[in-house]
Amino acid sequence: MTEHTTERTAEKTTPQPSAIQRTPEASRSPEADPEENRRQVLYWRLLARLFDQEEQGTLESASLAVVEDIGLPSALLDPQASVDSVVQRHPELAAEFDGLMTPAPHADGDDTRDRAVEVRRAALVSKVLLNVFASGSGTVTAGQLARWQSDAGWLERALGCKPGELRGGRAGGRAAGPGVSPTGTGGGGTNPDLSRLIPAIGPELGTIEADLVKRMHLREVLADPGLAAQLTPSMSLIEQLLRDKNNLSGVALANAKDLIRRFVDEVAEVLRTQVEKATVGALDRSVPPKRVFRNLDLDRTIWKNLTNWSPEEERLYVDRLYYRHTVRKTTPQRLIVVVDQSGSMVDSMVNCTILASIFAGLPKVDVHLIAYDTQALDLTPWVHDPFETLLRTNLGGGTDGTVAMALAQPKIAEPRNTVVVWISDFYEWQTEPLFESMVAIHRSGAKFIPVGSVTSSGRGSVNPWFRERFKDLGTPVLSGHIRKLVHELKTFLA
């Protein structure tokens, strides 16, 4: 009886040929597919490091054997070694990190996978992800922050972006496109879509960076010129500096101002490129075009005189020359920017202060800037210098938009020629009175643009009470990336 039972059990547990034919990949034994085992070892080590933080002896030794066997440096497994230091010692790896996690090109109809290449890619991907997302705990030095920012830059490069693009919210490089797995293999429906992954990962990088900045002893770092020089300007760092500026003096204050100015200049360079694409004023066709050669509209002149073509002489006789209009309407446009400077809006405050200064530099644009929390401050005299403007802000506190409205309304001299941009999360103390005054601006003929968030990441929440009422008014809240506001203002000024 035991023999018959054993035979029946063996029949049940023996794979059927049809099953083997249907799933050849799944039927392979681990010994038949060593590359897949190697790749899994590297990713299991990555997960263990990220979620356990303690060294797993077996996974560490197995991963070391894999890395050495495929000819990669053992420094890839050292959590203390930055990607920069690895690349410095092994410069040939720099090209492999670039675009590491973007879709791998395949020949048409070729779905084969080079498993040896995937193992190598897994080792490099693990290095970048571990250095960026295993940020540890405790006090952070300037050197550690700089190293993390550098490693985050390598992750952005691996995703097909330029260093700083994801954290800064600037255009996402060549990354958008078909699905891609963490190993870089494109195609299949089970792989995450990188065009959705990138917008999600940017804010997370910003959150990690902000946490690192908060864990720094910033005042001590700023007081040491050597340590301060290691700091890389970022939105998180600028927020901390602006909040703490009143407690700084001497060398520390000078270093803080230098960092703020560097960051302002970097952001301004990006925004200025977007703004300068705008036309300042439409063509004024009421003014006759100037009859000079450089304004000659040759195509229109030929088209209008085609009836004078002589086939016999093969010559076109021109009765009239046509010239292009070049004069633009010069009516000055007034732009009033009101920014909530409460604690939740620091990113908007920095971005919009810089943006206001850029628009203030355009001809025939009269820019006014007001910042408020429970008190309002007219920053218009310094609007051309965002650095000086930011130094006069006082981040934090509550929110009372009625005090800002008291400053903004008298500035609307010609409603049809005025745009009011109100930037806030609209969690206000006096909701009804503020909204009624905003409705009055809209009905006066001025263009009123409520903006819920003008951040690098596009994140931000808006009071649903205001959101619904602005929608009913026909002026829906504009939220998201700062490029949206640039587009709206360019349209108004065109």
UniProtKB/TrEMBL annotation:
Region of interest called Disordered, as start-end residue ranges on this chain: 1-37, 166-191
UniProt cross-references to Gene3D superfamilies, sorted A to Z: von Willebrand factor, type A domain
Residue spans of biased composition, Polar residues class: 12-26
SUPFAM superfamilies assigned: vWA-like
Bias type Basic and acidic residues, positions: 1-11, 28-37
Alphabetized PANTHER family for the sequence: OUTER MEMBRANE LOLAB LIPOPROTEIN INSERTION APPARATUS, OUTER-MEMBRANE LIPOPROTEIN LOLB
Protein name from the UniProt record: VWA domain-containing protein
UniProt organism field: Streptomyces gelaticus
